[in-house]
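Data deposition worksheet. Section B asks for the primary sequence of the deposited chain exactly as it was used as input, without tags or linkers unless they were present during the calculation. Section C holds the resulting structure in token form. Section D is free text for depositor observations; keep each observation to a single sentence. Incomplete worksheets are returned to the depositor.
Section A, Depositor: J.P.
Section B:
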Amino acid sequence: MIVAGEASGDHHGARVVESLLRMEPAVGVRAMGGELLRRAGAQIVVDSSRLAVVGITEVLGKFGDLARAYRNLKGLIRGGEIGLLMLIDFPDFNLRLARVARKAGVPVFYYVSPQVWAWRSGRTKVIAGRVDRMAVIFPFEVSLYQEAGLEAEFVGHPLMDALEPEESVVPILPEEEGWRGDPLVALLPGSRHGEVFFLLPEMIRAAEIISRQRAGARFLLALAPTIDEEKVRKILPSSGTRIELAKGKTDRVLRAADLVLVASGTATLETAIRGKPMVIAYRVSPLSYWVGRAMIRVNWIGLVNLVAGRSLVPELIQKEATGEKMAAEALRILEDEPYRKAMIQGLAEVRQKLGSPGASDRVARMALEMIKK
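Section C:
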């Protein structure tokens, strides 16, 4: 059983399932996940597309759905048919399931660690008490779990598995090549409805300001498959600044972009892998931010800066995440060539730290080893 509560987990889990079924076609996979896990060959027992939230207080609105999903999965784990529980991130939910599995004698494999290095570091002891093996995606995570007495292996970042040869990619729009003389700015507002509707209006405002400074600029909105396209279209400008919408084509959008306005999260690493300069934005409800800020123990909120170990790309957090400030940072990147080149060089270093492709195959082999024990 694979449990993936968010769009990124659905993506990573689907690649693991593809690898599992290629290595061992007789394996059966049940999952909490979305369309990608379904297409990969998993039997979806809980649809996760409506469960993902961002922010601490926002979870309250999903409590009923999360409770029903938990009861469903708990019953299946206790039913005796599950030979391995694989958890992908989504820690508050998944660590409760891990406790159920431990009591039921089902081995637990955790892929994509909770961000214990950022906040709630005490969870390493909880995880070590409920999980049998960890596959981590950042090299600095290994020592955190080994110190807690848990076997952990760095498998590389799964985003590296998604890389396609440049020549195999169809341009995002027919006129893409004609955009190279003027900047193409990509907007990546996130994969959860909450963050999208907090950030997208400000990103649109930034696009309007940039277009006044750079008349030839074009804008491309990369919409995650989990987001309602019709709701997004209602807040796009009806005239003036032209913003094209591309759903489920994030990698193609990133390849075409000269600059990216991106929500804090995994998408910042996708942007880094493609070597594209970016401005990171983060905004949740005031209460969520206040509670989270009191618990966070890192200097940066963007994964790119955390992996780099320095302030490589600008971060605009909460009240700072305004259209005006996004536009100012974007224009600096576009107009200050040494600054832009230094950022691109730093992004190449981040990509190198993420390891080599093959994470999904490595995780699948680890899972099969645990099933066959």
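Section D:
The first strand starts at residue 2 and ends at 4.
The chain has two domains: 2-162+357-372, 166-353.
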